[in-house]
């Protein structure tokens, strides 16, 4: 009896193994065969395909896993990675993935905070744009064609090579991919002066679910509107953007001033809330808060670090700050003058490094641990001292020892660009955005959970003090806690939960565009825009 049971058990194990083998392997073999048949240059496509038994598979996959939460052995991995070097490779990959029921995840710089560009719970293929990263700068016409796989550092460097008084309204961190950055809106040092990344795009090259290569003219204004902020991974694959370059002065100023609670940080933050959004467009004031052990008595305190770029000289900045924010006591010693491109190094904590470091795609996490959870909020009314104290007390929790919370001032041109100019809706009426970042050093599921729980507790705590109906969130700070679908079952009602937080009333237009360009919902992920049926 026992041995019969045992052999039945063995048999079912063998069967299960066989089944999973054939189920896993067969479509994937067919897919590879399809790729080589479909591609009219099969010799070059084979050199950009990485299956799991390719010795470079892990290196390629891990090359831009920025959040190590998604580098664990139980993170689902793609069956195949394709790193197209020609447009025909994209076309073949889209065609064959559709034919064989595989999902595509597109990856440019890999910074997605929830790893959606390289993690999926269904059989999938990663299309990585690492070989699509040329940057062509035309100083005379103040434009640049940039392939989506370029990182912001490459864009800034190539512009600076030709002109120190032009730039792009991009993000701070040099390793972010322009593909995902602009797809989700994109804000940075210049956004109060010139708007989001998406506001500064004037044409694009795009490939749709049928493999058609479209530009602004052939895609039409609706789709061109949608891809400049409606979130990556919903409509198709952006191959390149044509960026508008914007003027920056030859000399800019940066400053950073830190105060502890004992040095009146609380009063300064309360004051900052009232005035930061009214400071000149030439600034991007923010205040970062984190806890430290006091050097005096070892007890915890909070440091608030007030910092900004200023598009001008120290002599121009000081009187402005003296007049508008005298309480901060900004002095000449707190400020440094430099070129615009050097300010990028400064804010990446790469001061005194050669500019070439901006070309280096190797990631350096600017804050804390390599495992993290991010959330965002928008604030329309100044929060009270009591509310702020509650936030500080949570920042003093053990789980928050390397957490950082940043208030980033709105105002400037954001107040003057209409909410529906692009899908990015967070414009007039916002005092500032809150960025919550909890991070930690070691991977351990029990440990990770306690940090994630901390971020949820803080987010709950902040509910009464931030935007409501919807509680707005920034699409590029992806957070699956605010709602997500189990890939495949995307209902409009379900998607509108997170869709309205990210896009407010622009969500409906995004759904219309999606319904037209990808009615069968091939390009999808946990927070993608659904088509209407
Ligand atoms: C350290 C760090 C700092 C950051 N700083 C800022 C900042 O200063 N300002 C800011 O606005 N944001 C910032 N972010 C957020 C960042 O802008 C977003 O994560 C952005 O989506 C990253 O783009 P990516 O190409 O690097 O990411 P990816 O992970 O490659 O892509 C993000 C999303 O876009 C999709 N996608 C990628 N490429 C394409 C494409 N070519 N066509 C269509 N869809 C595509 C992906 O499938 C995924 O859904 C930061 C993130 C990190 C990790
Ligand atoms: C390869 O395919 C592309 C796109 O389908 C086409 O434009 C190109 O002319 C083809 N090249 C050859 C050599 O057949
Ligand atoms: C990611 O995981 C792999 C496999 O466990 C490991 O070899 C690699 O070092 C990890 N990457 C980083 C940056 O820790
Ligand atoms: C803090 O504020 C109080 C009252 O406004 C003031 O008396 C004190 O000097 C300030 N302390 C510092 C360190 O600025
Ligand atoms: C701060 O103090 C706590 C407890 O007193 C200690 O566990 C922790 O290591 C200290 N942190 C630093 C950065 O010194
Ligand atoms: C990029 O930076 C990393 C980390 O600092 C370094 O190890 C690597 O050599 C650099 N690569 C290039 C091409 O400079």
From TrEMBL:
<dbReference type="InterPro" id="IPR016169">
    <property type="entry name" value="FAD-bd_PCMH_sub2"/>
</dbReference>
<feature type="domain" description="FAD-binding PCMH-type">
    <location>
        <begin position="74"/>
        <end position="248"/>
    </location>
</feature>
<dbReference type="Pfam" id="PF01565">
    <property type="entry name" value="FAD_binding_4"/>
</dbReference>
<dbReference type="Pfam" id="PF08031">
    <property type="entry name" value="BBE"/>
</dbReference>
<keyword id="KW-0732">Signal</keyword>
<keyword id="KW-0560">Oxidoreductase</keyword>
<dbReference type="GO" id="GO:0071949">
    <property type="term" value="F:FAD binding"/>
</dbReference>
<dbReference type="InterPro" id="IPR012951">
    <property type="entry name" value="BBE"/>
</dbReference>
<dbReference type="InterPro" id="IPR016167">
    <property type="entry name" value="FAD-bd_PCMH_sub1"/>
</dbReference>
<keyword id="KW-0285">Flavoprotein</keyword>
<comment type="similarity">
    <text>Belongs to the oxygen-dependent FAD-linked oxidoreductase family.</text>
</comment>
<keyword id="KW-1015">Disulfide bond</keyword>
<dbReference type="GO" id="GO:0016491">
    <property type="term" value="F:oxidoreductase activity"/>
</dbReference>
<dbReference type="InterPro" id="IPR006094">
    <property type="entry name" value="Oxid_FAD_bind_N"/>
</dbReference>
<keyword id="KW-0547">Nucleotide-binding</keyword>
<protein>
    <recommendedName>
        <fullName>FAD-binding PCMH-type domain-containing protein</fullName>
    </recommendedName>
</protein>
<keyword id="KW-0274">FAD</keyword>
<keyword id="KW-0964">Secreted</keyword>
<keyword id="KW-0134">Cell wall</keyword>
<dbReference type="InterPro" id="IPR016166">
    <property type="entry name" value="FAD-bd_PCMH"/>
</dbReference>
<keyword id="KW-0325">Glycoprotein</keyword>
<feature type="signal peptide">
    <location>
        <begin position="1"/>
        <end position="24"/>
    </location>
</feature>
<dbReference type="InterPro" id="IPR036318">
    <property type="entry name" value="FAD-bd_PCMH-like_sf"/>
</dbReference>
């Amino acid at each position: 009896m026992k041995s019969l049971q045992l052999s039945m058990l063995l048999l079912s194990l063998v069967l299960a193994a066989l089944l999973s083998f054939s189920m896993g392997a067969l479509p994937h073999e067919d897919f590879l065969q399809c790729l080589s048949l479909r591609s009219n240059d099969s010799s070059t496509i084979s050199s950009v395909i990485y299956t799991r038994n390719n010795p470079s598979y892990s290196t390629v996959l891990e090359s831009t896993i920025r959040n190590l939460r998604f580098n664990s052995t139980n993170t689902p991995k793609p069956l195949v990675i394709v790193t197209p070097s020609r447009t025909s490779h994209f076309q073949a990959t889209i065609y064959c993935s559709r034919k064989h029921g595989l999902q595509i995840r597109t990856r440019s710089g890999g910074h997605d905070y929830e790893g959606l560009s390289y993690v999926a719970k269904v059989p999938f293929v990663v299309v990585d744009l690492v070989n699509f990263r040329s940057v062509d700068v035309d100083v005379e016409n103040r434009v640049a064609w940039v392939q989506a796989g370029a990182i912001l550092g490459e864009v800034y460097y190539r512009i600076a090579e030709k002109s120190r008084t032009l730039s792009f309204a991009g993000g701070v961190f040099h390793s972010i991919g322009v593909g995902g950055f602009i797809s989700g809106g994109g804000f940075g040092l210049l956004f109060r002066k010139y708007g989001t990344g998406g506001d500064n795009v004037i044409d694009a090259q795009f490939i749709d679910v049928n493999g058609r290569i479209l530009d602004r003219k052939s895609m039409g204004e609706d789709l061109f509107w949608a891809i400049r902020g409606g979130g990556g991974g919903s409509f198709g694959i952006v191959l390149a953007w044509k960026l508008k370059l914007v003027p920056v002065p030859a000399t800019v100023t940066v400053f950073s001033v830190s105060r502890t609670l004992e040095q009146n940080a609380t009063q300064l933050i309360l004051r900052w809330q009232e005035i930061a959004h009214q400071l000149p467009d030439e600034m991007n004031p923010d205040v970062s808060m984190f806890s430290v052990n006091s050097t005096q008595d070892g007890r915890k305190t909070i440091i608030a670090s007030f910092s900004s770029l200023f598009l001008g000289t120290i002599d121009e900045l000081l009187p402005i700050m003296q007049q508008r924010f005298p309480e901060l006591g900004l002095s000449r010693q707190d400020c440094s003058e430099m070129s615009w491109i050097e300010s990028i190094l400064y804010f990446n904590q790469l001061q005194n490094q050669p500019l070439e470091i901006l070309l280096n795609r190797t990631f350096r996490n600017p804050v804390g641990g390599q495992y993290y959870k991010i959330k965002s909020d928008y604030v329309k009314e100044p929060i009270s001292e009591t509310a702020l104290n509650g936030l500080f007390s949570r920042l003093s929790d053990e789980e928050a020892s390397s957490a950082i919370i940043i208030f980033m001032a709105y105002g400037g041109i954001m107040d003057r660009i209409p909410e529906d100019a692009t899908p990015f809706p967070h414009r007039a009426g916002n005092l500032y955005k809150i960025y919550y970042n909890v991070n930690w050093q070691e991977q351990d599921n029990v440990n990770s959970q306690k940090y994630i729980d901390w971020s949820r507790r803080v987010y709950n705590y902040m509910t009464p003090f931030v935007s409501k109906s919807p509680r707005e969130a920034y699409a590029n700070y992806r957070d699956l806690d605010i709602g997500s679908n189990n890939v495949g079952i995307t209902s409009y009602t379900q998607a509108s939960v997170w869709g309205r937080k990210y896009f407010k009333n622009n969500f409906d237009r995004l759904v219309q565009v999606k319904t037209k360009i990808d009615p069968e919902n091939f390009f999808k992920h946990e927070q993608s825009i659904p088509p209407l049926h």
